[in-house]
Design brief:
Number of helices: 14
Order of helices and strands: HEHEHEHEHEHHHHHEEHEEHHEEH
CATH superfamily of the largest domain: inorganic pyrophosphatase (n-terminal core)
Shape: globular
Radius of gyration: 20 Å
Number of strands: 11
Helix content: 40-55%
CATH topology of the largest domain: inorganic pyrophosphatase (n-terminal core)
CATH class of the largest domain: Alpha Beta
Length: 335
């Protein structure tokens, strides 16, 4: 907490020193509810202490569910950004600049202060680029990190900010399935500040689009299964909805699922595993799989212990072979 207090103080000092105070809170492409809710809450927290002109933006816009969430909470996520209009950038739930897509080079070339607030595995690219890096890797969501910043800096969380953070917590923990003790502590504090858990869960309810349901079914049809010891490792390929399909394969019984594919020469791979697989093998998808695979495809990779992703170029079949090589090496019985 002492380190976080220092980081929070530096962050507030950066914001306070901006003239004019114009900040763009940037979320990753197709931003999920944790990203947009943590950005919204952080923007409101800072606005209580400083007079800000601010925006929340995500390349090409937020996800369908995030648009529903933002509409219910009363804020907007912009799909476009004029970088020259803003005095600083805060990357929220975004651990590498490549997740900003076409905005990456604009932010790099702007020469303006960049802060990062996140909970994913630290990425060297971002660590070198940002001026302030507040990354709490063992947190289950960026919403948790925003609460911790507020707590460390003595910032007051109002009811609407508390509700936004509750939605973010609920989303990234899969309705608290992956909650840790700190998550429950934070959730309790948010309730004290006016957050409604039941309303947060209702906000996250959404009928899956037909195209996504079809993609999941196709992933099952194309599934290629490998057995490594006691573990079932499943690969599939889709041009879209890779993350959703990987989650579906886990739900069908896979211990680890990897779904790859893409459009226009870009390759995207989504990795998912069960909590049991992580606890017994200690294989962290972000560090142990996504990073080495990203190096092979000349792209970027990272994420959480049980959910990670890679973007780059190359052949999905080669990636399957590389993942299997890594798994066989790490799961080889110790002599």
């Amino acid at each position: 907490m002492a380190k976080l207090r220092i980081q929070a103080k530096r962050f507030l000092s950066m914001v306070g020193g901006l003239k004019p105070r114009k900040i763009a809170f940037l979320c990753h492409h197709n931003a999920d509810p944790d990203a947009v809710c943590s950005a919204f809450a952080l923007m409101r927290l800072l606005s209580k202490s400083f007079r800000l002109r601010a925006t929340i933006a995500s390349p090409t816009g937020a996800s369908k569910l995030s648009r529903k969430v933002s509409s219910e909470l009363g804020f907007a996520v912009e799909p476009s950004l004029a970088t020259e209009e803003w005095g600083a950038f805060v990357l929220v739930d975004t651990n590498t600049l490549s997740q900003l897509k076409e905005w990456e080079e604009q932010v790099r070339a702007s020469g303006k202060p960049v802060a990062l607030v996140d909970h994913h595995t630290r990425h060297q690219d971002s660590s070198e680029m940002v001026d302030i890096n507040i990354c709490v890797e063992d947190s289950t969501s960026t919403s948790e990190v925003v609460f911790m910043i507020a707590e460390a800096a003595g910032l007051k969380i109002d009811r609407l900010s508390a509700q936004a953070l509750m939605v973010g917590l609920a989303y990234d923990t899969r309705h608290f399935t992956y909650a840790r003790s700190e998550t429950i502590r934070i959730a309790a504090h948010l309730v004290e500040r006016g957050a409604d858990v039941e309303k947060a869960l209702t906000t996250l309810q959404s009928r899956m689009e037909r195209s996504e349901r079809m993609a999941r079914l196709k992933a099952g049809q194309r599934a290629e299964m490998h057995r490594i010891g006691k573990w079932l490792v499943v690969f599939s390929n889709l041009s879209s909805y890779q993350a959703s399909a990987a989650r579906a394969l886990i739900g069908m019984g896979a211990d680890l699922a990897a779904v790859g594919g893409g459009k226009k020469g870009e390759l995207r791979i989504s990795l998912r595993s069960t909590k049991e697989f992580l606890e017994e093998t200690q294989i962290h998808l972000g560090k142990d799989l996504a990073r080495p695979v990203a190096e092979m495809v000349g792209g970027k990779g990272g994420g959480h212990s049980t959910a990670a992703g890679v973007t780059g170029t190359g052949d999905a079949a080669n990636i399957t072979r590389r993942i299997l090589e890594i798994l066989h090496e790490k799961l080889r019985p110790k002599e």
